[in-house]
Structure formats: C-alpha cells, structure tokens
Design brief:
Blueprint lengths: L19 E4 L4 E4 L2 E2 H4 L5 H10 L5 H13 L5 H13 L2 H14 L9 H27 L12 H10 L5 H13 L7 H10 L5 H12 L7 H11 L5 H10 L17 H17 L3 H17 L5 H11 L7 H22 L25
Antiparallel strand pairs: 1-2, 2-3
The structure holds acetyl coenzyme *A.
Length: 373
C-alpha cells in the first residue's frame, strides 16, 4: 500500500536537474551555478537561454551562431499564419498560445525526433517564436499594423517594438531583457513539472510545451501577474491597506504573494521592485508602485508573506506599455527557454514519471445490474 501523500507534493524531490537551484531559506536562485544577482542586468536573455539549453554561457562566436538560429526561428510557418487571425478572435491569450504552439509543431521537420540535436533545434526555434506569437496574436486581435521582426534587434527589443509599435527606449529594453532573464527557469515549478511528465513518456518537445503553457495559465502560477495588476486597478489608491486587510479577513488570497519554496524575499522580486520604481519615476506617475509598496507592507505585517516574482513584474510590464492580459504570455516568452532546457535534460536521461496515489474511495462494492441500482 502507498504511503500517505504529501499534499501538493510539497518538499518531494521529483527530478534531478543541473539547470537551476533555489535556496528557499536564504532567498537565492542559481542558473547552472550562477547566482541570479550576477546574471540580472549583466547577461542578456539570449545568453541566459544558451546557458540553460546548451550548458554554458556562450562565447562571442557561440552567441553569434545561437543568435542566428534564433533569428531564423522567428518565422511562424504556413499553418500558424493561416489560422492566427481566427484563433486571436476566438481564444484568450494563453489558450491561443497553447493552440498556436501545437500548430507550429505540426510543421516542424523534427517533430517526431527526440534526439539531442533535434531537441536543441526545436528549443531555439520555440524560444525565438514565442515572442513573435504573442505580438502577432495581439496585432491580429486589435487589427494593428505590426512591424516585421528586426533581425538586428534582441528578443527583448523586438518584442517591445512589435507590441507597442514604437522603437523602444534603450533603458526600457534593458529592463525588459532583465525581466526575461529573471523568469527563465525555476526548478520544479508546476509548468516545468508538467513539461517533464509529458516528455518522460517520450512524447515530443511541442507536446511537453503545450502541457507547460496550459499549466502556467492558472492564477496560482503564471496567471498571478495579470491578477496583481487587476487588483491594483480595482483599489482606490488611498484604500490599499483597508482593502487588503478586508480581503485577508475574508480568507482571500492576495495575488503575487507567497511561495511554495521561498520563505523570505524572492531574489527576483528584489530586482523587479527596483525596476518598477525606476519605471514609475520615469513615467511621472508612481501611483501603482506606491500602492504595491503599501500592499507589500500590509501583507508582510498581517500574514508574514513576501512578494513573489509575479508581484512587481505586473507594474514593470504595465509601465512598459504591455497590455495586462499579455502579462502571463510574457512570462511564457521567458520560461520557454527553461521549459525546453528541461525537456532536453529529461530526454537525455529518461525514466517514465509515474508516482503512486493513496486510494481514499469505497472498497468491496457489490456490483448490481443497471435496473437494480
Ligand atoms: N494571500 C493570502 N494568504 C496566502 C497567500 C496569499 N497570496 N499565499 C498563501 N497564503 C496562506 C494560505 O491561505 C494558507 O493559509 P492557511 O494555512 O491559514 O490555510 C497558507 O498561507 C499556506 O498557503 P498554501 O496555498 O497552502 O501554500 P502553497 O505552498 O500551497 O502555495 C502559492 C503557494 C500557490 C504560491 C500561494 O502562496 C498562493 O496561492 N499565492 C497567490 C498566487 C500567486 O501569487 N501565485 C504565483 C506564485 S509564483 C509563480 O508561480 C510564478
């Protein structure tokens, strides 16, 4: 008979990984042994994706080769092109991304191959394609003209260009690039676990990514960043403390707070708070930043909970001009680098992931014919 389960698999070690590591007590995060504080603001998202997918920070030559692969990976393929308008009309952003990634897999020449070479090609292509999918989805639903991706621009710069329609300010590009670095990987979070479970059946990378996107969508995971912004927008600026206390008293969760692993400040929140403040000041209106600071103080005082990555990411994205319902898709743009790296790692040393369960239903039931039930 199985042991009692740990609800939500808390503290269960479900996989070995060389990709990222968290010290939840000290509030530290590492990608392949590099402290996130050393990477953020000093390493580009492209370098970070290379670190995760290829195993090391790139040399200049390696970065040039990987960058060229990313630029080539930006094209969406005929099936996506033919369907994106209708999907944008009928599906919400995360649902649409789930569909579009699935469609793009259908045309991939490596779709049935799980070799390391095929997986690396698919990882680079999915990483390149995700920001374009988000921008093209947004343009399709709004009817906006969208500039073509500029091969000379980084993923961060190109995304801001395509979403806002304006050549982005270089400091805004740096900040957004740092956001992408901060969200790239995070051990056995729910969406990464979903991707690994799927990959471990020897299913293909696109299927694993579709599972991950569906999992990221939920408000207890990536969907929280959108909910943070909606909460800020629903509260009068001078009513923050009272509203938060009322919500807590009613047993409501405050989105953007708490974490399964961090029991202190999430190191990503440290950077995001700073960037939110800087952008608020540059915008000349720091209302949402000040409200966020007040929420942070109240939630810490009342519940002892710290902001997670989603809390200050919300106002950063808002100040960068990203529409609120694209906040979770933006998370997926970054996390694609980590998800794909996890699929590569899973396929490289695979065993089916199939835990046990504790049976809590009826036993010894007596079967009766349908007319006697
Ligand atoms: N607001 C209020 N109370 C909270 C919050 C919160 N944000 N988070 C946890 N709590 C409380 C719970 O109500 C619970 O209290 P109880 O013991 O009195 O019932 C206790 O803290 C433990 O919470 P759990 O939900 O059991 O903790 P768990 O580790 O399962 O969940 C999670 C972690 C999902 C992140 C949780 O803190 C939460 O729901 N936060 C809000 C959603 C959120 O911000 N999600 C993004 C997480 S980061 C990411 O996925 C990218």
């Amino acid at each position: 008979m199985a042991d009692k389960p740990t609800k939500g698999l808390a503290d269960v070690v479900a996989a070995s990984t060389a990709l990222s590591d968290i010290d939840g007590k000290a509030g530290r995060l590492f990608y392949r042994g590099y402290d996130i504080h050393d990477l953020a603001g000093r390493t580009t998202f492209e370098e970070t994706a290379h670190l995760l997918q290829c195993g090391a920070l790139p040399t200049r030559d390696q970065l040039a080769a990987y960058g060229a692969e990313l630029v080539n990976g930006r094209s969406l393929g005929a099936l996506v092109e033919a369907n994106i308008s209708e999907i944008a009309e009928k599906q919400a952003p995360m649902e649409a991304l789930r569909t579009l990634v699935s469609l793009s897999g259908a045309e991939n020449p490596d779709k049935d191959a799980n070799s390391a070479e095929a997986n690396h090609r698919k990882a680079a292509q999915l990483t390149a394609q995700q920001p374009i999918l988000v921008a093209r989805y947004h343009a399709a639903r709004t009817g906006a003209e969208i500039p073509d991706p500029d091969p000379g621009l980084s993923i961060a710069a190109n995304f801001l260009l395509q979403i806002t329609g304006k050549v982005p300010d270089p400091r805004q590009v740096e900040i957004f690039d740092t956001c992408l670095v901060l969200h790239a990987d995070h051990t056995m979070n729910a969406s990464t676990f979903a991707a690994r479970v799927c990959a471990a059946t020897l299913s293909d990378m696109h299927s694993a990514i579709v599972a991950a996107i569906g999992t990221l969508k939920g408000p207890l995971h990536g969907g929280a960043n959108e909910q943070v912004m909606r909460t800020l927008q629903s509260i009068a600026p001078d009513q923050v403390a009272g509203t938060v206390r009322d919500k807590l008293a009613n047993g409501e969760k405050i989105m953007g707070f708490g974490h399964r692993v961090y029991k202190t400040e999430d190191p990503r929140a440290t950077h995001l708070r700073r960037m939110s403040e800087e952008l608020a000041q540059a915008a000349g209106d720091d209302t949402y930043y000040r409200m966020s600071k007040e929420m942070e103080e109240v939630v810490l005082a009342e519940k002892g909970l710290y902001p997670n990555v989603d809390f200050y990411a919300a106002t950063v994205y808002h100040y960068l001009g990203i529409p609120t319902d694209l906040f979770t898709p933006v998370f997926s743009v970054s996390r694609m680098s980590g998800w794909t790296a996890h699929v590569i790692e899973q396929h490289a040393d695979n065993r089916l992931i199939r835990p046990d369960s504790e049976y809590i239903g009826e036993r010894d039931q007596k079967w009766k014919p349908i007319d006697e039930r």
